Amino acid sequence: MGKGDKKTTKGKIIMGSYGKKRPRVKSKKVETVVAEKKEKVAVPKEEKPKKEKATEKKAK
User: Fold this and answer.
1) Would you give the DSSP letter of residue 11?
2) Nearest-angstrom CA–CA distance, 19 and 38
3) Distance between CA atoms of 20 and 8, rounded to whole angstroms?
4) Which of 36, 33, 16, 15 is nearest to 24 (CA)?
5) pLDDT at 59 over 60
6) How far, in Å, CA of 19 to CA of 47, rounded?
7) Which ranges in the chain belong to alpha helices (H)?
8) CB–CB of 11/21 below 8 Å?
9) Residue 8 neighbours by CB under 8 Å, 6+ apart
10) pLDDT tens profile 11-58
């Protein structure tokens, strides 16, 4: 009754198997907290002046 015995806890640890003598450890459930969503208010964006392209440099 030692490391080679499949029916003992020690043997199951060595073999890497689970069963009655070595049950799997269940993880604890984690509760998720949902934060309240804030309402978005539409804010108009300021218009930026458009830049003129430098076409004069290419005309040389």
Assistant:
1) H
2) 50
3) 9
4) 16
5) no
6) 69
7) 9-15
8) no
9) 1, 2, 21
10) 988 899 988 888 888 888 888 777 777 777 777 777 777 777 666 565
